[in-house]
Amino acid sequence: MTIAKSRFQFREQFFFLLVVPLVLAIEWSVASSVDWRAYPRIEWAALADMCLVLPLIYFAFFSSKLEIKARLIRTAGISGLGMFAVQFIVPEANQFVTPYLAQLRNTLIVFVIIFEGWVLYKLAQAVFKRDADARTLERDFAMPEWIAKLMLVEARFWKTVWSFFKRK
User: Fold this and answer.
1) Burial status of residue 90 (CB atoms within 10 A of its CB: 0-12, 13-18, 19 or more)
2) Which of 31, 40, 36, 34 minimizes the C-alpha distance to 86?
3) pLDDT by residue (tens digit) across 124-164?
4) How far, in Å, CA of 22 to CA of 161, rounded?
């Protein structure tokens, strides 16, 4: 693992271990201390913080080593997690926009599942190639080398099982 890659992983861990819990704690404390009868539409503040500010912080400061496509996908994922968190932070009686956004999130999940299926297909193609090696998988799919090696061992196992059944 290169030094630049380990620095990026540390920065990303720093984001998920320190920044996200801090923002969640701030949002939770504001939601528990505000008078929801006096400010019934304060849901917008929680949505803006969790779905816009938090993903933009990640995009601007923590993912600069990634390619733009990977940055955007991860930023969209963090935004979706923010929408999910707002459902628990804002009292149900004061959720005016969140149910509509939840429907949008559920629709987008279908596209995410299709995309993940496509990535899984491409990964399986790469692993089951005749001349697949761990370094290529590590580079192409941004995975740790030990996981790539384990995947290649598993692929060899399934190739052996398949050839055993093919002979019978």
Assistant:
1) buried
2) 31
3) 888 888 888 888 888 888 778 888 889 899 888 988 898 88
4) 49
pLDDT at position 5: 55
Q: In one letter, which amino acid is 158?
A: W
Exposure string for 111-133, b = 16+ CB within 10 A, e = fewer: eeeeeeeeeeeeeeebbeeeebe
**Burial classification of residue 144, based on how many CB atoms lie within 10 Å of its CB (0-12 exposed, 13-18 middle, 19 or more buried):** middle
Q: Which residues contact 101 (CB under 8 A, 6 or more apart)?
A: 47, 51, 83
Tokens representing 165? 């059944």
Tokens encoding 32: 């528990």
CA dihedral 156, 115, 9, 154 (to 10 degrees): -10
Say if CB 152 and CB 133 are below 8 A apart: yes
User: What is the rounded CA–CA span in Å between residue 49 and residue 56?
Assistant: 10
Token pair of 19, please?
């920044």
Residue 137 corresponds to which tokens in the numbers above?
């998988």
